[in-house]
Specification:
It is built from six helices and four strands; from the N terminus they run βαβααβαβαα. It is of the alpha/beta class and 127 residues long. It has a four-stranded parallel sheet with strand order 2-3-1-4, with helices on both faces. The mean pLDDT is 92.
Length: 127
């Protein structure tokens, strides 16, 4: 299993790149907001319980994808320090199932990010 782990700041284009990559490669797309919306359907966004369950759900999904050899593209907003444990666990779980992890960091000029973060398309996707 190959895991393409696309990360970067909000509005940098992670979902756009991941969607195109999934189309080109046949990989499954696991978009970051799917897990957020799933947990938020029951628990309040931002609480300790919310983040614990979100991480648990993501890790279980990625580990099972590795176990079943389902090549996957995953999007993620990485926060240095806060998310280090999640990233280490992702690597460990995927590799323990024989998978490989490839990290792709996206960048964008600050001015462009400021424009993108306010778009209607992002609001429609609850971003």
């Amino acid at each position: 299993m190959k895991l393409i782990f696309i990360y970067g700041p909000p509005a940098v284009g992670k979902l756009t790149v991941a969607t195109e990559l999934a189309k080109q490669t046949g990989f499954k797309l696991f978009h970051n907001h799917i897990s957020l919306q799933f947990v938020q359907s029951v628990f309040e966004f931002g609480t300790k319980l919310f983040w614990r369950l979100t991480d648990k759900f993501r890790l279980e999904m990625l580990e099972e994808a590795a176990k079943e050899r389902v090549d996957t593209v995953f999007t993620f907003v990485y926060v240095k320090g806060t998310d280090d444990s999640f990233v280490r666990q992702t690597i460990r779980r995927v590799r323990s199932r024989g998978g490989q992890v490839c990290f792709v960091q996206l960048h964008c000029h600050e001015e462009e990010l400021a424009k993108r973060v306010k778009t209607k398309a992002r609001r429609n996707m609850e971003k």
